């Protein structure tokens, strides 16, 4: 393989890449269960990186069922999203994500800055209850329940939930195990169509697990819950803060 051909490759293994090259990922009939709760403010501040700040310590446990994703197929994902601020702007910070689709994990970490690792999530209807679960290996680490379609959620509120500016850490070590990339990056979903949105009563249980420590941000009070069905395209990440070169804000990390 010629050097110029190597430079055209996006990922490995050559000839059978972990995810396909191409444009932005398109999601059709992406289904969310989002439960937002108030947690311990000190526990939340301990995991939110500067220059992001914590106001009201709100955490969203989300389960996303994705039956039609361009290039990646079908899978369900779950994790925690923290409500933060950056320079006075309300935003979301991706704290942890769990999924059992290798292409989603590898592309999410290499192209973007999604904090993904292996886990098994499920979103299903149990008669009159929408149920979201997350297992790490053989153990349950989260169970979320919401009354099914109790009340319509205003489309503007649904859009506000999904299209918040979103921050994440892009971390990549060099061969000496020291950071080669250490960045705070920002993205925002703008290409979205809401197909349905509902709210209702909800409950959330988080169970202790050393490798999936969601319960380190304990549930103190359920604030809101929603169930959203939509089509969307992921936005690109851009560099906000380079921890290795804090005065350099040029460039685009994805």
Describe this structure in words.
The relative contact order is 0.19. The protein starts with a helix and ends in a 12-residue tail after the last strand. The strands form two sheets. Strands 1, 2, 3, 4, 5, 9, 10, 11, 12, 14 and 15 form an eleven-stranded mixed beta sheet that branches. Strands 6-7-8-13 form a four-stranded antiparallel beta sheet, with no helix packed on it. The model has no long low-confidence stretch (mean pLDDT 95). It is globular. The chain is built from four helices and 15 strands. It has helices at 3-6, 41-45, 102-110, 155-162, and strands at residues 26-38, 58-69, 73-86, 89-99, 116-118, 120-126, 129-136, 139-147, 151-152, 166-173, 179-187, 191-199, 202-206, 221-233, 238-242. Strand 4, helix 3 and strand 5 (116-118) form a beta-alpha-beta unit. The chain has 254 residues and is mostly beta strands. Helix content is 10%, strand content 50%. It has one domain (22-242): Acetoacetate decarboxylase-like.
Number of helices: 4
**Radius of gyration, CA atoms, in whole angstroms:** 18 Å
How many domains, in number, for the residues? Answer: 1
The largest sheet, given as strand count, sense and whether it forms a barrel, is: 11 strands, mixed
> What are the low-pLDDT stretches, counting only 5+ consecutive residues below 50?
none
CATH class: Mainly Beta
């Amino acid at each position: 393989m010629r050097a110029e051909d190597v430079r055209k490759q996006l990922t490995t293994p050559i000839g059978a890449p972990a995810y396909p090259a191409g444009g932005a990922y398109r999601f059709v009939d992406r289904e969310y269960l989002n439960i937002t709760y108030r947690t311990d403010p000190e526990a939340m501040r301990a995991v939110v990186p500067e220059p992001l700040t914590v106001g009201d310590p709100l955490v969203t446990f989300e389960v996303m069922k994705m039956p039609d994703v361009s290039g990646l197929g079908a899978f369900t994902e779950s994790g925690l999203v923290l409500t933060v601020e950056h320079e006075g702007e309300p935003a979301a910070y991706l704290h942890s994500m769990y999924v059992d689709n290798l292409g989603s994990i590898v592309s999410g970490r290499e192209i973007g800055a999604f904090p993904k690792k292996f886990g098994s999530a499920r979103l299903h209807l149990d008669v009159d209850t929408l149920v979201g679960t997350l297992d790490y290996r053989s153990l349950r680490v989260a169970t979320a329940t919401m009354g099914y379609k109790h009340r319509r959620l205003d489309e503007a509120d649904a859009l506000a939930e999904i299209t918040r500016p979103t921050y994440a850490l892009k971390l990549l070590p060099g061969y000496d195990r020291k950071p080669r990339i250490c960045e705070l990056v920002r993205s925002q979903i703008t290409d979205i169509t809401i197909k349905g949105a509902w709210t209702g009563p909800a409950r959330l249980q988080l169970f202790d697990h050393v490798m999936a420590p969601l319960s380190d941000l304990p549930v103190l009070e359920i604030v809101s819950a929603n169930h959203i069905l939509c089509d969307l395209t992921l936005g690109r990440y851009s560099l906000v803060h380079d921890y290795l070169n804090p005065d350099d804000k040029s460039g685009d990390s994805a």
